[in-house]
Amino acid sequence: MCLIVFDWRPAAVDGPLFTLAANRDEFFRRTAEPMHWWSEAPGLLAGRDLLGGGTWLGMTRDGRFAALTNYRAPHEMRPDAPTRGTLVSNWLLGESSAGLAPLDYLQQVAQDGEIYDGFNLLVGDWSRRELGWYCNRSATGPALLAAGTHGISNAVLDTPWPKLVRKRAELGGLLAADPLVPLERLIDLMRDPQLARDDELPSTGIPLERERVLSAAFIESPEYGTRGTTALRVVANCTHGEHLSAAVAERSDDNGSHRVVRPGDFERSFAFNIER
């Protein structure tokens, strides 16, 4: 997952608590399963990386959520580093997070954060109304996020890369006009191939031509690109006691057969109530 923009309203009484639009960028040769309810954990909804075994974004029926982006530092990559996707799945499966709040889990992850290649990790619990963030390349430690509209790409939270600034602002504009904007509109928001100008590009240790390609929200290149887009909304209804519901939609290049189609047009959608 390489671009996430989201709006977080933990004090919501009636209306959206959490709204997210996210692109997963990956090599086309890396096989994965699309979003589905996992057979060994029926309460877990996520895609699955078939190489590393983890996932990039997922949620559970009891209100846990997590998403991951890689931190771009090409000269720091280590062949022996453990897969980062299990940081998401471990929280969702409860294998190393049973009974923990989001910040507790992030602090646990941070104890061994240096063994991984760079990452950003969002961890939430909608029933607790808590959302935390940790980057193992940031000077700051794990923290809970206050209300607001944020973005993460392949640097620390809200680093002003052009595509992040643009999509974060566009998300804010959509929600100002319609807090319950259709999920399909959020997906369309992220399927944007516009490149940044050269004078706007960050310098992350890769060639200029590569920086140009990766500056698009929707990335397309011969071997690497945006493999899928996810839109998610959690809504609170507290008129007759607290009630939370989630709706999620995914558009990807893989229908589950690992037959990559560009640009991806396979769509799935799910809706469920959060079980407290």
Which terms summarize this structure?
276 residues, alpha+beta, Penicillin V Acylase, Chain A, 7-stranded antiparallel beta sheet, 6-stranded antiparallel beta sheet, globular, TANGO2
Structural class: alpha+beta
Question: How do the helices and strands follow one another from N- to C-terminus?
Answer: EEEEEEHHEEEEHHHEEE
Largest sheet: 7 strands, antiparallel
Oligomer: single chain
Number of strands: 13
Fourth-level CATH superfamily? Penicillin V Acylase, Chain A
CATH hierarchy, class: Alpha Beta
Strand content: 25-35%
Which ranges are low-confidence, i.e. pLDDT below 50, for 5 or more consecutive residues?
A: none
Question: What is the count of distinct domains?
Answer: 1
Read across the widest sheet, the strand sequence of neighbours is 3-4-5-6-7-8-9
Question: Rough shape?
Answer: globular
Rg over C-alpha atoms, rounded to the nearest angstrom: 17 Å
CATH architecture: 4-Layer Sandwich
Mean pLDDT: 95
Count of helical segments? 5
Compute the separation of the termini in Å: 28 Å
The name of the CATH topology is: Penicillin V Acylase, Chain A
The residue fraction in helices comes out at 10-25%
InterPro entries: TANGO2
